[in-house]
């Protein structure tokens, strides 16, 4: 005859069966499968939500570049491809420290040229080659923001022009 040890201040007499107080392995596996299914559904949605938040930063900074360009045009009579420095519009992202992973902004902003003068690279490290649509002249400008917000190698590219029209040139959120 086997002796049954008391658990949780329960005592059992010989012949009385111990009541089951634990989950079976099958029950635990069902719970794990349900949690995995819910994660499979929610993670892509959450990733898309984060990407949309990053895009909101681009809208804000493009509008800031627009305001700086308009002020420069009012003073100088032309727009400039130089964002910061001599002959520039006096714009650079808040907290800029040289570009790259240490920045507190995501997209790369500006025009072709030199880092820290014509364009600013954000923490996503998007190459300045994606700024090819950018231009500035006497009566018009197009500034570009580019960032791989989904992490798939296809950057989200937005532009703003002298009329404050923002255009999504390449939509990383589509598809």
Describe the overall structure.
The protein has 175 residues and is of the alpha+beta class. It has one domain. Helices cover 30% and strands 14% of the residues. The protein is built from one helix and six strands, in the order H-E-E-E-E-E-E. It has one helix at residues 25-76; strands at 108-110, 119-120, 135-136, 141-147, 156-161, 166-170. Strands 1, 2, 3, 4, 5 and 6 form a six-stranded antiparallel beta sheet that branches. Strand 5 (156-161) and strand 6 (166-170) form a beta hairpin. The protein starts with 24 loop residues before the first helix and ends in a 5-residue tail after the last strand.
Count structural domains.
Answer: 1
What profile does the largest beta sheet have? 6 strands, antiparallel
Order of helices and strands: HEEEEEE
Number of contiguous helices: 1
